[in-house]
């Protein structure tokens, strides 16, 4: 067996080929990222291009109408705000309490395992299934008012709760055991140690998760279609039991209109919705950077 | 109306009780170690004794009061001429209720006008009755709680036990939700399968619920075209976009990009996942679909439709990219560094290391991530509602309009419909299939991920 000749032209050629393959591979990777980002840029550009002209005070403060030039989004925005309030009031306490229990108090038992499995699965169940649940339970069984922010908020709360539980558990897990031990060592009870010391330290993480969950709920349309929130609403809802629409639903309804002028309205409403989402995510990132403690 | 006021009153009482018990406990304090619990715990203990009985009575009464009121109204002489038919009677009673709350409301039925007055009287009577009961329960609880404010009384232990019960109840909500989903889907789908045989539903190839009448009902509920459309759009076209792009982005970001580039690109890419699906749907319908239609036309297809599987699948794929990318990211990060270092030390280039060492080692994690991505894609609703179309057909042509399970669920449950017709109930049967399939995908994927992590730890 003769040793390979590293300086032969054949070897040099092979090496060049391997390096070319390396460069090609790297370029493909870069290309994949650029393509994805280009798609994002295209989407944003088209929405801006066709929607910016439609943004005006009248548009922000008006209500839905069959005339595209007077139609506005205030009734849908107010519906969204009310729905989100219901969602937040229900899912935040429930999610945080459940996360505390599972992370700090739960005994190792078959029951608790079931709870964990069902939380992980609920986080991945398609949102439309939650809509079917809302339709069957809240509307047909409990007779709550159709297309109201109350039912929408209840449905979205069930959807958001697993997200809050999962992020809450991670935040609580990240608090070092020494904090608990120190509290217990000076005579605090387990409940005191958790509520006075662990929870305040975990709160920024929990808030970040909650905001992200709420942002997802704000953009959600499919489950709300199921519970009848696609009505043509001209007056802004006065309370959580009035029929109302929400921003994504308004976008969906307008996108179906034949009148060309609604294209501008739809895009403008999308810009408003994206601005809300961006603000929420920005707040989440700010909270994380400001309060996150690296142990 | 009265009940809402009572609810506020109970909460106010709780607050008063909290202050009162705390103040009394403070008076009992005579020095270090003289009391078992801090005054605040006595306050909470007292407040719980007011709120729990009060709120429980409130909930029970709110549940039974409408029945009592209707019973009283039916006993009124004015109700004697009400129609015997259940539905009609309920409608008139509901109208009378609106009138009782707001005398200016317009009544469609004259009978309800006559009933408004007895309705209001009954509501007031039972409202006050309930208010009295609720307040008695709250005050009795509060009285008992107040007698317990003693120096040696372990208020903290009691309050903490109540807190633990609350925590447990909150975590059981998750099981309750899962149970609610399964029960409601099974129940409604069960009603559907009384009319339509499950075998015809799962294996039939003709979907036309609009024509389903009488004997040939089975033949019009064949859901195979919907399953095919769902798989074709969500699991084939979308994945053909998302897997290469997501995987290559993850590889580039973890293996090649500098940390600054990574720090900026990754969150930007994540924006794609945060855009609401209704926006994607609108984008697909407004921009992507016409381009694809023109493209199909230039390929020589006759009458290409605006709605196409390709438009929906492409856009859905883009939406899934960040998801695949972050799953692949996790899977690649879990491979021990020694493996790639060993390969590099032997003289392999980076791309060779990635292709021959990293990817095979991370494969189980990547496959699990793809399964989760598929489960997400087939449950996606708005994009297909806005871009994929309504025609149920078994076709492999991506330019054809195709329909999916989620599209048909929306179709069956919105617009005019009578509940309990096989047409609307079919939505729940489709929902059940969707739930079971995504559940299986999720469970397998989570198992694989767990096993895969353990293998390298």
Automatic annotation (TrEMBL), chain A:
It is found in: Cell inner membrane; Cell membrane. Keywords: Cell membrane, Membrane, Transmembrane, Transmembrane helix, Transport. InterPro entries: DUF3333, MetI-like, MetI-like_sf, Phosphate_PstA. The chain crosses the membrane at residues 27-60, 80-102, 114-138, 150-172, 193-215, 268-287. The keyword Transmembrane helix applies. Its main location: membrane. This is Phosphate transport system permease protein PstA. It comes from Novosphingobium mangrovi.
TrEMBL record, chain B:
PANTHER family: PHOSPHATE TRANSPORT SYSTEM PERMEASE (PTHR42727:SF1), PHOSPHATE TRANSPORT SYSTEM PERMEASE PROTEIN (PTHR42727). Belongs to the binding-protein-dependent transport system permease family. CysTW subfamily. This is Phosphate transport system permease protein. InterPro entries: MetI-like, MetI-like_sf, Phosphate_PstC, PstC_N. The chain crosses the membrane at residues 6-25, 46-64, 126-146, 162-187, 226-251, 271-292, 312-336, 357-378, 427-449. CDD domains: TM_PBP2. It is a multi-pass membrane protein. The keyword Electron transport does not apply. The keyword Ion transport does not apply. Residues 228-445 form the ABC transmembrane type-1 domain. Pfam families: BPD_transp_1, DUF3708. NCBIfam families: phosphate_pstC (TIGR02138). It is found in: Cell inner membrane; Cell membrane. PROSITE patterns: ABC_TM1. Part of the binding-protein-dependent transport system for phosphate; probably responsible for the translocation of the substrate across the membrane. The gene is pstC. Keywords: Cell inner membrane, Cell membrane, Membrane, Phosphate transport, Transmembrane, Transmembrane helix, Transport.
């Amino acid at each position: 067996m003769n040793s390979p000749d590293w300086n032969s032209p054949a070897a040099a050629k092979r090496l060049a080929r391997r390096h070319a393959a390396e460069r090609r591979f790297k370029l493909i990777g870069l290309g994949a990222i650029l393509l994805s980002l280009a798609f994002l840029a295209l989407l944003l550009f088209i929405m801006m291009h066709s929607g910016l002209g439609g943004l005006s005070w009248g548009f922000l403060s008006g209500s839905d109408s069959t005339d595209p030039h007077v139609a506005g989004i205030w009734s849908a925005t107010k519906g969204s705000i009310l729905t989100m309030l219901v969602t937040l009031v229900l899912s935040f306490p429930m999610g945080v309490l459940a996360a505390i229990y599972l992370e700090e108090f739960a005994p190792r038992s078959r029951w608790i395992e079931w709870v964990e499995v069902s939380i992980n699965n609920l986080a991945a169940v398609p949102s439309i299934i939650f809509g079917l649940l809302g339709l069957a339970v809240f509307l047909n069984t409990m007779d709550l008012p159709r297309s109201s922010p109350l039912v929408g908020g209840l449905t979205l709360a069930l959807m958001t709760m697993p997200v809050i539980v999962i992020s809450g558990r991670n935040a609580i897990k990240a608090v070092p055991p020494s904090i608990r031990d120190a509290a217990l060592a000076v005579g605090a009870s387990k409940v005191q140690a958790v509520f006075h010391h662990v929870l305040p330290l975990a709160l920024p993480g929990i808030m970040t998760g909650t905001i992200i969950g709420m942002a997802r709920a704000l953009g959600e349309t499919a489950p709300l279609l199921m519970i009848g929130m696609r009505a043509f609403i001209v007056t802004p809802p006065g309370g959580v039991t009035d029929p109302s629409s929400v921003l994504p639903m308004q976008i969906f309804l307008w996108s179906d209109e034949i009148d060309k002028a609604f294209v501008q309205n739809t895009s403008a409403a999308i810009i408003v919705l994206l601005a809300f989402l961006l603000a929420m995510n920005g707040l989440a990132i700010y909270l994380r950077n400001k309060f996150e403690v690296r142990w | 109306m009265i009940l809402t006021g009572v609810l506020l009153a109970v909460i106010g009482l709780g607050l008063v009780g909290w202050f009162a018990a705390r103040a009394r406990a403070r008076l009992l304090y005579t020095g270090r170690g003289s009391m078992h619990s801090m005054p605040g715990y006595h306050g909470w203990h007292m407040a719980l004794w007011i709120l729990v009985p009060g709120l429980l009575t409130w909930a029970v009464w709110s549940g039974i009061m409408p029945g009592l009121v209707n019973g009283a109204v039916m006993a009124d002489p004015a109700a004697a001429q009400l129609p015997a038919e259940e539905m009609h009677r309920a409608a008139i009673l509901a109208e009378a209720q609106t009138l009782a709350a707001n005398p200016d409301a317009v009544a469609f039925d004259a009978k309800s006008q006559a009933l408004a007055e007895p309705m209001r009287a009954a509501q007031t009577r039972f409202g006050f009755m309930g208010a009295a009961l609720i307040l008695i329960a709250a005050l009795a609880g509060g009285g008992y709680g107040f007698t317990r404010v003693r120096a040696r009384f372990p208020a903290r232990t009691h309050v903490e036990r109540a807190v633990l019960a609350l925590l447990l109840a909150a975590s059981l909500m998750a099981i309750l939700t899962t149970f609610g989903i399964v029960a409601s889907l099974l129940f409604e789908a069960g009603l559907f399968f009384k009319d339509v045989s499950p075998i015809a539903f799962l294996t039939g190839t003709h979907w036309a619920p609009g024509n389903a009448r009488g004997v040939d009902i089975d033949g019009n509920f064949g859901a195979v075209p919907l399953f095919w459309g769902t798989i074709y759009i969500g699991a084939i076209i979308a994945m053909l976009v998302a897997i290469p792009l997501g995987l290559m982005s993850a590889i580039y970001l973890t293996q090649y990009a500098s940390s600054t580039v990574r720090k900026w690109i990754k969150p930007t890419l994540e924006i794609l996942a945060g855009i609401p699906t209704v926006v994607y749907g609108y984008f697909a319908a407004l921009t992507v679909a016409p381009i694809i239609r023109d493209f199909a036309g230039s390929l020589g297809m006759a009458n290409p439709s605006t709605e196409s599987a390709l438009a929906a699948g492409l856009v859905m794929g883009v939406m899934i990219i960040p998801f695949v990318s972050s799953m692949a990211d996790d899977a690649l990060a879990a491979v021990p560094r020694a493996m790639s270092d060993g390969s590099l030390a032997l003289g392999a280039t980076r791309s060779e290391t990635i292709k021959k060492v990293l990817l095979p080692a991370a494969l189980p994690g990547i496959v699990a991530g793809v399964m989760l991505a598929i489960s997400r894609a087939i449950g996606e609703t708005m994009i297909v509602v806005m871009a994929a179309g309504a025609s149920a057909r078994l076709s492999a042509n991506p330019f054809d309009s195709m329909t999916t399970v989620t599209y048909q669920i929306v179709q069956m449950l919105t617009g005019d419909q009578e509940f309990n017709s096989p047409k609307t109930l079919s939505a729940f049967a489709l929902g059940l299939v969707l739930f079971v399939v995504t559940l299986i995908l999720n469970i397998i994927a989570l198992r694989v991920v767990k096993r895969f992590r353990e293998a390298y730890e």
